[in-house]
Design goal:
With 198 residues, this protein is α+β, with helices and mostly antiparallel strands. The chain has seven helices and four strands, in the order βαβαββααααα.
Length: 198
């Protein structure tokens, strides 16, 4: 299998960590797809987004939610996506919250990176930042458990991204969440190996 990724993408990191957690890292070839001049990503995914998984059968799987489910299936199922309904939907809901924070944080970053200064919208940035802040505040009151599942994997990838791109500013007012993350992430298979650089 080949995972097309960008080194800084928290969504790609989530998938890579999932591969490690499932014991599939040796079967998952990481292929940097950022800035691909041949536009191979768009040829496989009309949205032109990463991560993108090419299966052993040559099929294309996207986005990160579906990739994680596919990897769980390859590993036998019920490994990082629990089978028991209550645990399953708790993990999937936590993943959705973390993914939403990643979406909003990326939009904040893109506002400064891809739009001309005259086009910057403080109102837009504030709206996205509020999504990040209210979600982190909610997580501070409902600390995740220490089970390795898609929810805790996504949350770790998300908090790692906030540390990487926003210098960990979230930590100051969320000490419980920071303590959970600092205790959980070093034990999470693949977390250290997928750390973005630069």
């Amino acid at each position: 299998m080949k995972l097309r990724f960008s080194p800084a993408s928290p969504f790609a990191r989530k998938c890579a960590i999932a591969g490690h957690a499932l014991g599939l890292a040796d079967r998952l070839e990481m292929v940097d797809g950022a800035g691909d001049p041949g536009d191979a990503i768009r040829a496989r995914n009309p949205l032109g987004k990463i991560p993108l998984l090419l299966t052993d059968d040559g099929d294309t799987v996207f986005d990160s939610v579906v990739i994680c489910e596919y990897l769980d299936h390859v590993a036998g199922g019920g490994r990082i996506i629990p089978s028991e309904p209550k645990a399953r939907f708790r993990a999937l809901t936590l993943q959705a919250l973390a993914d939403g924070v990643m979406d909003a944080a990326i939009l904040v970053m893109y506002e400064g990176r891809y739009r001309e200064p005259a086009q910057h919208s403080p109102r837009w940035v504030a709206m996205q930042q509020k999504k990040v802040d209210t979600s982190l505040d909610a997580l501070e009151t409902m600390i995740p458990d220490n089970s390795v599942h898609v929810g805790t994997i996504a949350t770790s990838a998300m908090l790692g991204y906030l540390d990487f791109r926003f210098k960990g500013a979230w930590r100051e007012t969320r000490p419980k969440l920071a303590a959970w993350f600092d205790g959980f992430s070093p034990k999470l298979p693949g977390f250290a190996e997928t750390q973005p650089a630069g």
